[in-house]
């Protein structure tokens, strides 16, 4: 009975979110919550930094400051559950046709439930509509032999990213941390 009530109220919640749909927001409902995507504001930096600090196997101690600065300088999308950010993507546009995903992370407790895939689809969909054709991401190469990043590379590869190079050392990365350079192409926007 309690289960039925939970499912019913989740459905009601999803409907309520859709009825109050704001421009630029997209919704996703699953068994873990009602999610939306929105552009970040400067005040969201603390939440993004907290997500990064909660993933110490993935991000070194210099990363929180870089994320806070990059959020102000570049386009940032947040996945939010209610008012709580559960993931973010920071993208630097290099040219009209090309951009790099500088930072991408899902809060530790929500990893592995499709939130990253959903956020990435929304971000790339919006960028594609805006004329983007190529997207790059750098991540730790398999040659580093560091287990946690196996899942990260699987994530990018599942979403069509192809490795085009390994660079070690990459400027700003410490030696011994080979960078895998991945790119993916986006289809031309239908409206384009
Ligand atoms: C990488 C990350 C963004 C993926 O987001 P997510 O919500 O956890 O991933 P999803 O649930 O959408 O998974 C999509 C696919 O990624 C791969 N994947 C995700 N977690 C995985 C794991 N633990 N092991 C192997 N593959 C995994 C799988 O291919 C999966 O598809 P499947 O569910 O059909 O098997 C997220 O886990 C994260 O924040 N990781 C730590 C920080 C990080 O690595 N950021 C990127 C730096 S370049």
UniProtKB/TrEMBL annotation:
* Matching Gene3D superfamilies: 3.40.630.30
Specify the N-acetyltransferase domain's residue ranges. 35-187
Molecular function in Gene Ontology: acyltransferase activity, transferring groups other than amino-acyl groups
Recorded superkingdom: Bacteria
Question: What Pfam families does this protein's entry cite?
Answer: Acetyltransf_7 (PF13508)
Q: Cite the entry's keywords alphabetically.
A: Transferase
Instruction: Write down the InterPro entries for this protein, in alphabetical order.
Output: Acyl_CoA_acyltransferase (IPR016181), GNAT_dom (IPR000182)
Q: What is this protein called?
A: N-acetylglutamate synthase-like GNAT family acetyltransferase
**From which organism does this entry originate?**
Tamaricihabitans halophyticus
């Amino acid at each position: 009975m309690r289960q039925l009530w939970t499912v019913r109220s989740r459905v009601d919640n999803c409907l309520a979110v859709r009825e109050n749909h704001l421009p630029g927001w997209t919704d996703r409902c699953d068994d873990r919550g009602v999610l939306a995507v929105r552009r970040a504001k400067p005040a969201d930096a603390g939440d993004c930094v907290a997500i990064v600090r909660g993933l110490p196997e993935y991000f070194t101690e210099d990363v929180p400051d870089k994320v806070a600065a990059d959020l102000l300088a570049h386009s940032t999308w947040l996945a939010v559950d209610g008012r709580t950010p559960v993931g973010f993507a920071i993208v630097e546009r290099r040219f009209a046709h090309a951009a790099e995903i500088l930072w991408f992370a899902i809060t530790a407790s929500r990893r592995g439930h499709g939130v990253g895939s959903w956020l990435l689809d929304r971000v790339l969909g919006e960028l594609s509509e805006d004329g983007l054709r190529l997207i790059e991401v750098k991540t730790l190469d398999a040659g580093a032999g560091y287990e946690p990043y196996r899942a990260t590379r699987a994530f990018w590869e599942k979403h069509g990213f192809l490795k085009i190079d390994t660079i070690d050392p990459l400027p700003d990365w410490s030696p011994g941390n080979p960078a895998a350079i991945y790119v993916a192409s986006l289809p031309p926007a239908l409206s384009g």
